[in-house]
Amino acid sequence: MNNNDHPAQRKGDQIRNNLTNVFKEYTNKEVPAELKKEVFSTLASIELAANILDLFTVKFIRSEAEFLSEIVDPEKRNEKKSPEM
């Protein structure tokens, strides 16, 4: 899966584009590069935190539940190995 296909990446790109448009709407002159850099840096940090949170909550719990369900119910493990017809 390409990083650009990841939902969080697409959402980050949307936010970045929207902020760029907002900057253009509210001012006739160029936004100071330092301010723009700081805003986008903050957004990148928030996006990174969201991805880490997603990794250690939703995905970790889902993987743990799948792993434990295979231990408790060995038939599920066998069903995954055998091809469906």
Quick overview:
The chain has one domain (7-21, 29-81). The protein contains three helices and no strands.
Helix % is over 70%
Helix count equals 3
Global Rg? 21 Å
How many strand segments? 0
Shape: rod-shaped
Please report which band the strand proportion falls in: under 5%, 5-15%, 15-25%, 25-35%, 35-45% or over 45%: under 5%
Structural class: mainly alpha
Distance between the termini: 28 Å
Mean pLDDT: 78
> Low-confidence segments, ≥5 residues, pLDDT <50?
none
Total of domains? 1
Give an account of the 3D structure.
This protein has three helices and no strands. It has 85 residues and is mainly α. It has one domain (7-21, 29-81). Helix 2 (33-72) packs across helix 3 (74-81). The longest helix is centred in the middle third of the chain and has 40 residues, at 33-72. It is rod-shaped, with a radius of gyration of 21 Å.
